[in-house]
Design brief:
The protein is mainly α. Helices cover 59% and strands 0% of the residues. The N and C termini lie far apart (57 Å). The structure holds zinc ion.
């Protein structure tokens, strides 16, 4: 079984490689980056401050 030839789960009938793989990889790497940042105490603190400031209106 070759994963590269798998049909895309979106139902387009194209293979996954030529369809949603790119979008999925991008979403995945963004999530991985966020996860990596959150597991780093310094970065997590930065992110929390950033989010706090974003949610503050005045
Ligand atoms: Zn697709």
């Amino acid at each position: 079984m070759n994963q590269d030839d798998e049909l895309c789960p979106c139902g387009s009938g194209k293979d996954y490689q030529g369809c949603c793989k790119k979008a999925f990889d991008q979403a995945n790497s963004a999530r991985e980056k966020l996860k990596a940042a959150m597991s780093n105490p310094e970065k997590a603190k930065e992110l929390k401050e950033l989010l706090k400031n974003l949610n503050k209106d005045d």
